[in-house]
Amino acid sequence: QVQLAESGGGLVQAGGSLRLSCAASGYIFSHYTMGWFRQAPGKEREFVAAVKWAAANTQYADSVKGRFAISRDNDRNTVYLQMHSLKPEDTAVYYCARDSRPFRVPATKTYEFDSWGQGTQVTVSS
Fold first, then answer.
1. Mind listing the pLDDT tens digit for each residue in 47-83?
2. Is the pLDDT of residue 106 over 80?
């Protein structure tokens, strides 16, 4: 059974940094692209970043390019999202997710991911 557990969210001032972690279990972690998504109140869930199974290929939403960095540790079955220069508009619940298919070039669409964590709240104050 696939399980994803996020951690590392919290309250931070604008301009600050946070690092989110997502521990995965129940499948061969190194075979799947992993992604981060976020959902703000009243808005649809949106793509943030994704990293290919071998960590050699990453994708980012335009809104976070240059500020966020996704990485993974296949030995620890963990994916990370390092966030810098946070803005109030980054406030959301952040979810990690697993691609529905192994060995696929990084997916970026919500429907391409079939397993989700419970989410972790990130709040950026102005």
1. 999 999 877 799 999 999 999 999 999 999 999 999 9
2. no
To the nearest 5 percent, what fractions of the chain are helix, strand and coil?
5, 50, 45
Tokens of 91: 């406030």
DSSP state, 109?
S
Other CB atoms within 10 A of residue 61 CB: 16
**80 in the Ramachandran plot: left (φ > 0), alpha (ψ -120 to 50) or beta?**
beta
Q: Does 40 score more than 90 pLDDT? A: yes
33 contacts: CB under 8 Å, gap ≥ 6 = 50, 51, 52, 53, 98, 99, 104, 105, 106, 107
Two structure tokens written together for 6 = 């996020």
